[in-house]
Amino acid sequence: MIVSALLTSVGINLALCLLFFTLYSILRKQPSYLNVYSPRSVAAKEELEESNKFNFERLLPTAGWVRRAWQPSEDELLSVTSLDAVVFMRIFIFSLRVFGFAGIVGILVLLPINYLGNQLNRDFDISDLPSKSLDSFSISNVNVGSKWLWVHFCAAYIVTGFVCYLLYYEYSYISSKRIAHFYSSKPQPNQFTVVVRSVPVSSGSSCSETVESFFTENYPSTYLSHSVVRRTNKLQGLTSKAGKLYRKLMRLRTETNTQQRLRRDGCWGLFGRKVDALDYYGKKLDDLEDNVRMEQTSVAGKDVAAAFVSFKSRLGAAVAFHIQQGENPIEWLTERAPEPQDVHWPFFSASFIKRWISKLVVVVAYTALTVLFLIPVVVVQGLTNLNQLETWFPFLTSVLDLTVVSAVITGYLPSLILQLFMSFVPPVMIMLSSLEGYISFSQIQKSACSKMLGFTIWNVFLANTLSGTLLYGFEIFLEPKKIPGILADAVPAQASFFIAYVVTSGWTSLLSSELFRVTRLILSIIKRPFSGKDDEFEAPSIPYHSAIPKVLFFGLLGLTYFFLAPLILPFLVVYCCLGYIIFRNQFLNVYAPKYETDGKFWPTVHNSTIFALVLMHIIAIGMFGLKKVPLASSLTIPLPILTLLFNEYCRKRFLPIFKAYPAECLIKKDREDENDPRISAFYEKLSTAYRDPALMPMHHPRSTDGHSTPLLQAGV
Amino acid sequence: MIVSALLTSVGINLALCLLFFTLYSILRKQPSYLNVYSPRSVAAKEELEESNKFNFERLLPTAGWVRRAWQPSEDELLSVTSLDAVVFMRIFIFSLRVFGFAGIVGILVLLPINYLGNQLNRDFDISDLPSKSLDSFSISNVNVGSKWLWVHFCAAYIVTGFVCYLLYYEYSYISSKRIAHFYSSKPQPNQFTVVVRSVPVSSGSSCSETVESFFTENYPSTYLSHSVVRRTNKLQGLTSKAGKLYRKLMRLRTETNTQQRLRRDGCWGLFGRKVDALDYYGKKLDDLEDNVRMEQTSVAGKDVAAAFVSFKSRLGAAVAFHIQQGENPIEWLTERAPEPQDVHWPFFSASFIKRWISKLVVVVAYTALTVLFLIPVVVVQGLTNLNQLETWFPFLTSVLDLTVVSAVITGYLPSLILQLFMSFVPPVMIMLSSLEGYISFSQIQKSACSKMLGFTIWNVFLANTLSGTLLYGFEIFLEPKKIPGILADAVPAQASFFIAYVVTSGWTSLLSSELFRVTRLILSIIKRPFSGKDDEFEAPSIPYHSAIPKVLFFGLLGLTYFFLAPLILPFLVVYCCLGYIIFRNQFLNVYAPKYETDGKFWPTVHNSTIFALVLMHIIAIGMFGLKKVPLASSLTIPLPILTLLFNEYCRKRFLPIFKAYPAECLIKKDREDENDPRISAFYEKLSTAYRDPALMPMHHPRSTDGHSTPLLQAGV
């Protein structure tokens, strides 16, 4: 890629960004799009000042939201959102610092050195800059054996040191935040509860009795209550169906036109005799509710050998959680309970051995998906070449012959197909993670987040750098000695691709999909005529499992390319600034926290950065080898070792804080509660906090026809 | 090696074994050798029936001891010795079963197939059997591409399945033994105590105050007492010196010849004026004791930021041990306390970060020692060739020219040097492990045991199979794809060497060094004139760190060679039978248990067997590749994967039991104690159990001259 091409690409994307920015500034002020751009205030049913009164200002793009997103301090953000959101924002702050420092080193020191080399082009004439290849700014342009490479060597050491210092600082900062947040928290059910799985139920007794007798005997002073988990998959389906039907019924009732309320009782409402829809659905709902009640009584016997066990103190729960309970280590398995709204109810169906096997299966499936993902993509892309299309759709021939159309199709269709395939990946990862038998959505998301990260690194980074050889790329792991050489050969060649990637996939897609929420906007426009006013509206929660890997991937790009092609860094700095403002805005207006992991995502960020550093070192070792500076190559070897040792130290120093709270904190909090008069009320709440929502009958007034029917809260 | 050579070697070693057996049978009955062959009864000062009365039977070799070693049941053995000894004996039972089964498969099925192949020799004539190479019985003789190799393939699967079944059975058997042993145990100090390290002592207060306030505040109901650890390295040196001097003095006092009591007071007792040794040493001891008292008072201020903290219940100790105590995960580090007599006092000097670094240093040193061990050995062996010796010692020329002498020197000297170097290895491993900062001898021994195992496998197995290329052998780990091929090529060629190794290093050295205790016998004969009657006599404890790796290495040989050269198996079966009887005898008569790990060595045995299986599979994969049966080679690949999965399952199912006792057991035992009237006496004992012996002043009557001097227990 030459400089002018890069500038064109940047120009186009800048224009697109500006367009989205302007559109967002206008649309966010339109009351009809509030549920797209401010769902948090809609869900909270806040009074929106004069939202329905038209004024001219509404049509002007303004940047006031940027100021409002910028202003709140971290503590204010924490009070409005969750610690997870604050930790997420720390990724941007951390990345900005890293790229800022690396950018200064890269642009001011490395870039001139690279440009002054003459490995690629012998003449250096500043006037024909636009037609220069971007490679003249990369390390490829430095002469083989040049002494200037020692500057790159020093830069690698200095930047690694700086990044490690920042990593340490952030880890310690977030650890202290996490503990402070725990100290300031109110008593929460999950702090007092553990999940017990693989309860060894003897044939004579029920699961509930077994759990009760085990814990009253062993923890007479701290045991409070328990609730056994039941297999409710079928019931959940029924209740959600009933909920939907109930909503339909309510909507029909508001319908004044009786003609419209008629429908046929046959297949899909198209055949059969005409009946009043109100009666028809009413009868159907009654049947469903009968079913639900029957299922609820029958389900009571279907224990899953698992229970939520609550204790009177946090330390009591911690004791049950940390110490192996039964003599058999695969029975009485305890785990911290998630927050009640975070429980993933369908998980409970598996015994220890089943869960272990499904974990193995998931690992295999994940590896296969990651490694083989590109094969179908390449195949489908191959099917969409021009000739193929012309054969399939002969009537398109004339259109396809136009240069513009063919350029668009050959240029964009493959990448569109890739994007399409890629968009299916996060849900697949969530599905895989949920198969692993986690007990909470947050754990599933955390596991999916790591999976997505590995997937992205493999399929976007390695697939592009080792393109062509990727299908056999797995082979290089069998000859680890060759890895540095192969990477050093392939990675710098893709620098210009990744700069373009940062601009398009970073800037533009951040603005379009994150800020402008294109998909959601279109859905809302389509859905509007059909949706009733009374629909319950819920603010979405941020999909950490797709958002975090994206940001971390740019971090990886920045760290690996900073000394190969420092030109990428300014673009990454802009990306981080944009991301910082946009995500702050989204956290304040769009995403509502559903559950709180207290920053448990940070270790993933830390590990990913360490991986990026080590990858950078490996490439550096290979690079110095290729450039025939073997001494620099050998002297770089301690760098990854030191980095991994640093990581090991951090694991010991900080990771335990993210796994569980220390006894000191638990005891302090417990002591505070002892003097709290509200604690007995909390205990009462605690004993019912972990009831399966599908099992709770709820009376709900159905209609004006006098009688009220029990309806189930879950689906409604 | 040809068959007749093997038979000769077996014959010689059998004769040697018989000799040792006979000598042992006679010498063990001589009262003067009781401290060599029955130190347990000597230490226990048992009345030995008519031990001093001479009778003729004492000079006849009898095998009664074999019957007496065979007879006791496992429970009887447990009551007389320790669980560790029982677990050690289980290794032999396990190996016997494995080799029995593998031997039947190998000798009855594989051996005929190997022999009937004609890859190596085209004619098969049973008459010239003695001059046949041993290789005709190994897999090397099977024709390339032969269908018979599928029998080997099946044998690999069947034996792996059988070994895994046995591993599971043994693991579960020993786990249950371990728990049963815990239930039947009396209250022991180590069950109620944890070691706390890295206590964050603030400048204003002492370590003792910090520990006291932390635990009384956090565990008011279960905390009992603590004893702070002090830096006593210097003190320990002084006390042991004082102890030695005291013993010397006591011996001198029994001396009746006053002339012998005179000595010179100058350098080494050779110069200066003559003084009465009794007065001389008495004065010296007085000085030393003054020193010790001074050191004791000064040491009181030197805390090491570590303490033994005792609790009122086992669960209390477990809570402190399992849950991270302080907010900072590298402060208030807790660990199970070892038994009081098992504490390795000099360990305490290191902080968390120091210990971490020393662990890293030890890993590096261990790796270097293991990988580079053979270099000095080869160099020294090179120095001892005949010409070199003749140059150094010209007067030996005539002797060295004799064929017999030169044969012995060229044949035995190199292996003698190897043995000499090898004998230094276990102490070095113990030293390395103790540098790692373990708090107990048993942990040091366990860690040294794993180290020795790795060392033996690398230097005896790999060095012999990859001989010559070993120095560059590390390189093959950079090309993992080639490993199976290299191993399959090199390992079968060494079959005859390892058969001879089993016979010499297994049979003969087991009988000579273990049963006959050659070194100890010689030492005792030399020392006898000098040792006094009153010497405290202590029975030795078994050096698990050198005994277990030896047995496990033979297990590895059996598993890797069973399908390559099944001829090795009968020799291993004999080894196991010998080992079973001899070690039972030694446990009953020689080794006294010093401390009890309750079978914590078993996971090492398990892991080693899994390693041997996987090594066997890798060799099989390479072998089938070399023999051009690629399908068998590919179909073997699932075998190591399944084995590793099995291992993973066992880790989950059994390993936790070996790490700590489950809450259920602790609570049951605590409840038993509650009703025990002796528990308050135990608590009293508990609070002083973990005092550093160097800090305890002990009054000891010194002499007949009226006054008694405080003397220190430690060294005495």
Give a written overview of the molecule.
Chains A, B: Keywords: Calcium, Ion channel, Ion transport, Membrane, Transmembrane, Transmembrane helix, Transport. Chains A, B: This is CSC1-like protein HYP1. The structure is a homodimer of 716-residue chains. Chain A is mostly helical and 716 residues long. Chain A folds into two domains: 3-187 and 438-666, no CATH class; 189-350 and 679-712, no CATH class. Chain A is built from 29 helices and eight strands. A four-stranded antiparallel beta sheet of chain A has the order 2-5-1-6, with helices on both faces. In chain A, strands 3-4 form a two-stranded antiparallel sheet. A two-stranded antiparallel sheet of chain A has the order 7-8. In chain A, helix 6 (83-116) runs antiparallel to helix 7 (149-183) and helix 17 packs across helix 18. The longest helix of chain A is centred in the first third of the chain and has 35 residues, at 149-183. Mean pLDDT of chain A is 82; it is low at 703-716. The interface between A and B is large, with 39 and 39 residues.
